[in-house]
Amino acid sequence: ARVIANVNPAKEKEYLKALSQGVAHAAGTNFPGEPGNIYLFSHSTDAPWNIVRFNAVFYLLKELEPGDKVIVFYKNKRFDYLVFDKHVVSPSDVSYLTNRYETPVLTLQTCDPPGTLLNRLIIRAKLVGS
Questions:
Q1: How far is the C-alpha of 27 from the C-alpha of 16, rounded, in Å?
Q2: Staple 24 to which of 16, 18, 79, 103, CB 3.0 to 4.6 Å?
Q3: Which residues contact 56 (CB under 8 A, 6 or more apart)?
Q4: Are 89 and 96 in contact (CB under 8 A)?
Q5: What pLDDT is recorded for position 45?
């Protein structure tokens, strides 16, 4: 999926526009290959027939488990991440967005349960190769 860079997650109009085109990269977070937090977020949905309607790129994010690989391409370079953490948190918990790391960490976020705004599913993965 296409990643839209530097999207303000606090501005609904801005992030909804980005999510209609792909996955949003939270402004102020890092990029692949850089030490720190790379924060990507996208829609989930409650039914397969709504995937296209809502551009629900993270529809199956809930299936990821620790040990699974996530692959990101950035500037024609491949970055392999290994999932190490999976949590469901309150929408008010922004600590995963503001976390700072000395090593590259990829944070993926979507709504949980899919198709609702009740909670947020957070997946974190560490860089294992590029």
A1: 14
A2: 18
A3: 42, 43, 44, 45, 50, 114
A4: yes
A5: 56
Side chain identity, residue 75: K
Burial class (CB in 10 A: 0-12, 13-18, 19+), 44: buried
Q: How far apart are CA 7 and CA 28, in angstroms?
A: 9
CA distance 18 to 7: 7
Q: Which pLDDT score, from 0 to 100, does residue 123 have? A: 97
Which residues, other chains included, contact 33 with Cβ-Cβ below 8 Å and sequence gap of 6+?
74, 77, 79, 104, 127, 130
pTM for the model stands at: 0.87
Residue with tokens 């922004």: 94
d(C-alpha 98, C-alpha 57), whole Å: 23
Residue 76: φ, ψ to 5°: 60, 25
If we measure between CA atoms, which residue out of 29, 25, 30 comes closest to residue 42? 25
9's tokens: 């997650």
Tokens describing residue 27: 């402004």
pLDDT in tens, 50-75: 444 455 677 788 999 999 999 999 99
